[in-house]
């Protein structure tokens, strides 16, 4: 999901508590705290965790990329991971040609054929729009056999073009080599256990502040902790609707649990529906917890929440079915959309 969707979801969750709404009416920023907690998981990843990642191999194609050289380095890292049993973390750098120009190249892992495929693509702008006829003359796909049994745990095709490139971690498990896409993303930062820990921490800090201020301890720390923890958890659970999933119970679990694959986080309809539904629920909660409610709750929820979810949600699923043949190549939007949003910001 886009950042705005996670933010407004956190705000909406906070408004389900009458005490929070009442305090907000008196000038409290508690609902905003829920929104901030809602965008915190991706902030931790893209503004912190990614910069502490260490790579065993970095592939920088340069201004004149060689598809075979890229493929050989990838296959070399994969074989090393399999033969030594030590995971290999590989970073693929982008090819920037100008302020708004990038050379695209495509990496495809094909477990069925046991090969890695690399193709040098066209020049694109920052909007990822290709320039016609900009593909290198005589460029062909380079296919190299991996030579070890491979399982690709994410997407079949990966387009490397703008901003920061993707990374892959090759890990041997038993007799198979697993390919993990952006291994640093949605790990410890996207766990429900961290949501609980942050909620307790926020409550503790709020309680400490109140103890230092004349007037004594109130119920505010409870609501601060609850709003923070639930806003953070809302983000994690929303991400679980997509493909990549999250490490839900870190440190008790070590790997991401695959998502429900109901949507792609970069798609416009799921993001619009999330924002629309969250805003509708905020309005509903503000009204029902007011001194003089004006809305017919059941009618409002039916028309403003249920109807859009059914109509637009149904249209989205039909749209996805129509693109079923390109499902694998489009899965990468789940993370690329998040990366691009943060880079642009």
Class based on secondary structure composition and strand pairing: alpha+beta
Strand order of the largest sheet: 1-2-9-10-7
Distance between the termini: 15 Å
Can you give the mean pLDDT? 90
Unreliable segments (pLDDT under 50, ≥5 consecutive)? 325-331
The dominant shape is elongated
Fraction in helix: 40-55%
* Strand residue percentage: 15-25%
Radius of gyration: 23 Å
The tally of strands reads 10
User: How many structural domains in the coordinates?
Assistant: 2
Number of helical segments? 10
Largest sheet: 5 strands, mixed
What's the SSE pattern? HHHEHEEEEEEEEEHHHHHH
Short description:
With 345 residues, the chain is α+β, with helices and mostly antiparallel strands. Helix content is 46%, strand content 16%.
Explain this structure to me?
Helix content is 46%, strand content 16%. The protein is α+β, with helices and mostly antiparallel strands and 345 residues long. It has two domains: 204 residues, no CATH class; 128 residues, no CATH class. The strands form two sheets. A five-stranded mixed β-sheet has the order 1-2-9-10-7, covered by helices on one side. Strands 3, 4, 5, 6 and 8 form a five-stranded antiparallel β-sheet that branches. α1 runs antiparallel to α6, α1 packs parallel to α7 and α5 packs antiparallel against α6. The chain is elongated. It starts with a helix and ends with a helix.
Q: Which characteristics define this entry?
A:
single chain, about 350 residues, alpha+beta, 2 domains, 5-stranded mixed sheet, 5-stranded antiparallel sheet, 10 helices, 10 strands, about 45% helix
């Amino acid at each position: 999901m886009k950042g705005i969707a996670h933010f407004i979801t956190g705000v909406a969750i906070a408004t389900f508590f009458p005490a929070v709404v009442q305090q907000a009416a008196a000038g409290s920023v508690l609902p905003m705290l829920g929104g901030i907690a809602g965008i915190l998981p991706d902030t931790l990843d893209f503004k912190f965790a990614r910069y502490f990642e260490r790579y065993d191999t970095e592939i920088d194609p340069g201004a004149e990329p060689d598809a075979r050289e890229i493929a050989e380095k990838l296959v070399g890292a994969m074989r090393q991971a399999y033969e030594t049993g030590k995971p290999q973390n590989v970073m693929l750098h982008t090819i920037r040609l100008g302020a708004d120009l990038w050379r695209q190249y495509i990496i495809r892992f094909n477990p069925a054929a046991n090969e890695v495929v690399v193709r040098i693509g066209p020049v694109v702008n920052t909007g990822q729009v290709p320039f016609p006829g900009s593909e290198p003359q005589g460029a062909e796909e380079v296919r190299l056999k991996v030579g070890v049994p491979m399982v690709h745990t994410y997407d079949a095709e990966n387009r490397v073009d703008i901003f920061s490139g993707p990374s892959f971690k090759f890990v041997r498990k038993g007799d198979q080599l697993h390919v993990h896409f952006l291994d640093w993303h949605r790990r410890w930062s996207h766990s429900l256990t961290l949501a609980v820990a942050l909620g307790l921490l926020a409550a503790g800090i709020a309680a400490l502040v109140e103890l230092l201020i004349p007037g004594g301890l109130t119920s505010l720390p409870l609501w601060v902790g609850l709003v923070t923890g639930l806003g953070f958890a809302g983000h994690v659970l929303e991400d679980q609707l997509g493909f990549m999933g999250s490490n839900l119970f870190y440190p008790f679990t070590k790997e991401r649990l695959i998502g429900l694959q109901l949507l792609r986080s970069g798609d416009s309809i799921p993001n619009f529906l999330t924002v629309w539904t969250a805003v509708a629920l905020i309005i509903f909660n503000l009204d029902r917890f007011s001194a003089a409610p004006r809305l017919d709750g059941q009618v409002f929820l039916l028309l403003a929440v249920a109807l859009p979810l059914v109509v637009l949600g149904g249209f989205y699923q039909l749209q996805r079915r129509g693109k079923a043949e390109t499902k694998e190549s489009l899965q990468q939007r789940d993370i690329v959309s998040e990366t691009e949003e943060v880079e642009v910001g």
